[in-house]
Amino acid sequence: MATSSFPSSLFLLCSLLSASLVLSEVHHHDFVIQETPVKRLCKTQNVITVNGMFPGPTLEVNNGDTLVVKVVNRAQHNVTIHWHGVRQMRTGWADGPEFVTQCPIRPGNSYTYRFTIQGQEGTLWWHAHSSWLRATVYGALLIHPPPASSYPFPKPDRQTTLLLGEWWNANPIDVLKEAIRTGAAPNVSDAYTVNGQPGDLYNCSNQDTIVVPTGSGETSLIRVINSAMNQPLFFTVANHKLTVVGADASYLKPFSTNVIMLGPGQTTDVLLTADQPPNRYYMAARAYQSAQNAPFDNTTTTAILQYKSSPCCSNGTAKGIKKTPPIMPFLPAFNDTNSVTSFSGKFRSLRDIVVPKEIDESLFFTIGLGLDNCPKSFPKSRCQGPNGTRFTASMNNVSFVLPSNFSLLQAHSKGIPGVFTTDFPAKPPVRFDFTGNNVSRSLFQPVRGTKLYKLKYGSRVQIVLQDTSIVTPENHPIHLHGYDFYIVAEGFGNFDPKKDTSKFNLVDPPLRNTVAVPVNGWAVIRFVADNPGVWLMHCHLDVHISWGLAMAFLVDNGSGELQTLEAPPEDLPVC
Ligand SMILES: *[C@@H]1O[C@H](CO)[C@@H](O)[C@H](O)[C@H]1NC(C)=O
Ligand SMILES: *[C@@H]1O[C@H](CO)[C@@H](O)[C@H](O)[C@H]1NC(C)=O
Ligand SMILES: *[C@@H]1O[C@H](CO)[C@@H](O)[C@H](O)[C@H]1NC(C)=O
Ligand SMILES: *[C@@H]1O[C@H](CO)[C@@H](O)[C@H](O)[C@H]1NC(C)=O
Ligand SMILES: *[C@@H]1O[C@H](CO)[C@@H](O)[C@H](O)[C@H]1NC(C)=O
Ligand SMILES: *[C@@H]1O[C@H](CO)[C@@H](O)[C@H](O)[C@H]1NC(C)=O
Ligand SMILES: *[C@@H]1O[C@H](CO)[C@@H](O)[C@H](O)[C@H]1NC(C)=O
Ligand SMILES: *[C@@H]1O[C@H](CO)[C@@H](O)[C@H](O)[C@H]1NC(C)=O
Ligand SMILES: *[C@@H]1O[C@H](CO)[C@@H](O)[C@H](O)[C@H]1NC(C)=O
Ligand SMILES: *[C@@H]1O[C@H](CO)[C@@H](O)[C@H](O)[C@H]1NC(C)=O
Ligand SMILES: [Cu+2]
After folding, report:
1. Which domains, ranges and CATH numbers included, belong to the chain?
2. Helix, coil or strand: residue 22
3. How far is the CA of 94 from the centre of ligand 10 (A)?
4. Alpha-carbon separation of residue 39 from 42, 123, 203, 303, 305 (angstroms)
5. How remote is the CA of residue 343 from the centroid of ligand 3, in Å?
6. pTM of the entire structure?
7. Which ligand lies nearest to the CA atom of residue 393 in the structure?
8. Can you tell me the distance from the alpha carbon of 537 to that of 527, in angstroms, rounded to the nearest whole number?
9. Over the stretch 319-366, which tens digit does the pLDDT of each residue have?
10. How far is the C-alpha of 348 from the C-alpha of 338, rounded, in Å?
């Protein structure tokens, strides 16, 4: 068969080598953090941006590529950038959360993030991980299959990324500062946005509404990202079915739905086929609000799916032609938890996966809000939470406090004492009816601490994430840094190992980096601790992480050559 005398195994080896040299690329980017005037909702404000863009630049890479991003801080705020969902195998120094894996990049300074994308395909994103800067400092990170590979679905005719965001008619940092001062909940946003634009239904917005073009019969891959600060969102497109094919950069067995829900931090890839009469159709997002009696932004953001041959627009958008309004979709009610449950119940991994069957670390974490009694030294103006309290939040009754003199990872790797302790509890200190409607007021006030939970390299971990009804039950999007995890089960009420273990899906559960834990319910996740470092786990509602709804894992080095944390980069910012 072979016509040359070149040994085929050698030939194969050479082609593999050259393929890997050619196929995986290094992408260099410069991110300049700066103040930029941006006009929204009839008002111009200076906001913090990357390279003057809002949202920031979209990064596109192939699975296997390396990113080198030099972040130069020309703004008057400390900043860091987090690459949300990137596993950062052995490169924890590039993960980004301030005071966890690095100290902030101070004004005038810079830091270069270097990391490789390994085994992840689909949609991730990046955002600031310092104070509330991510309100305007965020962008998409698209990971394509490598050249020799392809999508596990027919190649789409078009691709669009829709970043859902939240906009305040105020500086978001001031909104946070005000909440910290008063102890009350922060002001809700004034608008939601699609790719930075509120859309037609808000004042002064309709000229700039995002238009997504399509030809009749074409299929688009639409990458939806919830980059909002504090709000889970429903998303839908009028009269069109959505076929979900991926989430958090992992492929899913395709399923069809009218509406999707994303907690902040989550991404969902859907296919949409333009199979309706040529026209203009709204793509809309609005709140899924599960907390009780809590104010929320009840507005609706829109973009427009516009058929090329749509009656309004086939002659271009010549002046004088009055456009008929686009068709508005039905959106679920703000409190439609049933829609959320039926949607998340359809998630199944597509690819062959190995879910840990045996467990070395069986953890049970309560997640929820709390109320601190007003400290004696505080004036009333600083205790404007319910009944003269201050809002707080915790996991297993520990309200997480960030260090300020070292990052946790630096303290760990250099053995600096006094920065954190490793006594985060494996289970709640007090057992109570977590989701009952009359939790004793004596349980509302957590303790503050910088407590980590230590994991041996390679240990197989299960965590039951249990919502509590303290103050109010709520759907919390829990995000783990440095890992993807399998969501093996979700349910309502208190997790009951006797009854609920039999419901675990250990065959094809979805693999994600953020789980929307059902309101007044629980989710069970599993992962193998194969990435050494310090990894934050937190609620991705920024208001909750600001109140302490977080903890961190400390994962030991393994003994193998490729099982240890890399050395810190020379330009790593120090405090
Ligand atoms: C929050 O809302 C209140 C009431 O509308 C307003 O007085 C206050 O200025 C707002 N705070 C910020 C930081 O925008
Ligand atoms: C638009 O402006 C009008 C008049 O100022 C105001 O009454 C209305 O609430 C605004 N609508 C939105 C969605 O902001
Ligand atoms: C939200 O706004 C809609 C109108 O868009 C209104 O019908 C509904 O009552 C509002 N809901 C809440 C809880 O404010
Ligand atoms: C949703 O809120 C409405 C009030 O806006 C209420 O009538 C309804 O009972 C609520 N539904 C659920 C499932 O809580
Ligand atoms: C505040 O006090 C009132 C009256 O004592 C009580 O009904 C309510 O439950 C309290 N709220 C909270 C959050 O403790
Ligand atoms: C770092 O800060 C903590 C908390 O303020 C303090 O206890 C510790 O001594 C400090 N460590 C060093 C090395 O300065
Ligand atoms: C709630 O619990 C307290 C004691 O923890 C009890 O005094 C009170 O009657 C209970 N309220 C209801 C509505 O069950
Ligand atoms: C949290 O700890 C504090 C201090 O020990 C205690 O008063 C409170 O009851 C605890 N709450 C829970 C839910 O364990
Ligand atoms: C982990 O291994 C790396 C590389 O050998 C080393 O630099 C680092 O200090 C180790 N970390 C710990 C906590 O032992
Ligand atoms: C910026 O970060 C440094 C630590 O690197 C800290 O000392 C300083 O207080 C921070 N500044 C602000 C405004 O938070
Ligand atoms: Cu939360």
Report:
1. 22-144 (2.60.40.420), 158-344 (2.60.40.420), 361-563 (2.60.40.420)
2. helix
3. 19
4. 7, 28, 12, 18, 24
5. 23
6. 0.94
7. 11
8. 13
9. 544 568 999 999 999 999 999 999 999 999 998 889 999 999 999 999
10. 19
